Amino acid sequence: MTITPKPTRKRPETAIYERRESRVRSYARAMPREFTSAKGAWMHDSEGGRYLDFLSGCSSLNYGHNHPVLKEALLDYIASDGVTHGLDLYTSAKTDFLETFENVILKPRGLDYRAMFTGPTGTNAVEAAIKLARKVTGREMVIAFTNGFHGMTLGALACTGNAGKRSGAGVPLNHVSHEPFDGYFGPDVDTAELLEQRLSDPSSGLDAPAAILVETVQGEGGLNVASPEWLRSIARIAKRHGALLIIDDIQAGCGRTGSFFSFESMGFTPDIVTLAKSLSGMGLPFALTLFRPDLDIWSPGEHNGTFRGNNHAFVTATATLRHFWQNDSFEEDIARRSEILGDRLSTIASRHGLTTCGRGMMQGIDMGDGETASAVCAQAFERGLVIETSGAHDQIVKVLAPLTIEDSELTAGLDILDKCIDLAMSPVLGAAA
Ligand SMILES: *Cc1c(COP(=O)(O)O)cnc(C)c1O
Question: For every residue of the chain, which 3-state class applies, written as one string?
Answer without folding.
Answer: CCCCCCCCCCCHHHHHHHHHCCCCCCHHHHCCCCEEEEEECEEEECCCCEEEECCHHHHCCCCCECCHHHHHHHHHHHHCCCCCCCCCCCCHHHHHHHHHHHHHHHHHHCCCCEEEECCCCHHHHHHHHHHHHHHHHCCCCEEEECCCCCCCCHHHHHCCCCHHHHCCCCCCCCCEEEECCCCCCCCCCCHHHHHHHHHHCCCCCCCCCCEEEECCEECCCCCEECCHHHHHHHHHHHHHCCCEEEEECCCCCCCCCCCCCCCCCCCCCCCEEEECHHHCCCCCCCCEEEECHHHCCCCCCCCCCCCCCCHHHHHHHHHHHHHHCCCCHHHHHHHHHHHHHHHHHHHHHHHHCCEEEEECCEEEEECCCHHHHHHHHHHHHHCCEECEEECCCCCEEEECCCCCCCHHHHHHHHHHHHHHHHHHHCHHHHHHC
